[in-house]
Sequence to fold (228 residues):
Amino acid sequence: AQSVTQLDSQVPVFEEAPVELRCNYSSSVSVYLFWYVQYPNQGLQLLLKYLSGSTLVKGINGFEAEFNKSQTSFHLRKPSVHISDTAEYFCAVSEPPSGNTPLVFGKGTRLSVIA
Amino acid sequence: DGGITQSPKYLFRKEGQNVTLSCEQNLNHDAMYWYRQDPGQGLRLIYYSQIVNDFQKGDIAEGYSVSREKKESFPLTVTSAQKNPTAFYLCASNGRGLGQPQHFGDGTRLSIL
Fold:
């Protein structure tokens, strides 16, 4: 069965500093990968997704992620964070064909941006 | 605007009581999902449905039940058999096609009185 490991449960970072949130997945077959963000007491919003093609994926709010097949990783990065980026971030994976199949989520990383 | 509506936002359950969480979508999506979120646990799948009148158990289905009588609606009942129901419940949906992301509602927080 698929599994997703988010290596850091909490990441504190100063405002305007860069950040990387790490995600590793277990599957050795082709996968689809997603990053979601959750603000307090809200649902999840899609930040970006990787299906195929270029391994560097750009998303909303200045985030990007790099797919590394050999390391089975999909780390999320932002070059300069803002206070408004404080939230919980979830990495998720599914196996093709994945039109209607459930995602497997990591346990989340809480990003705290310090002024 | 298209989206997923969950209601109520907050819900309280008495011991021995069944409660039903509502999830409605107007995105014309075929598939719908229910997740449970506990602090530090991520999202765990309760049930999902890929088509009307059909649904499958997820990883933690015990103590829960669902129905899918209409494409737009996927209510979740938390039964008295669920001994630890206090959690944040999230409903999601997605359409057909490869790599379609799931769209989420704003959740229902269930607490025990």
Observations:
- The interface with chain A takes residues 4, 6, 30-31, 33, 35, 40-43, 45, 48, 50, 58, 90, 92, 94-107, 109 of chain B (CB under 8 Å).
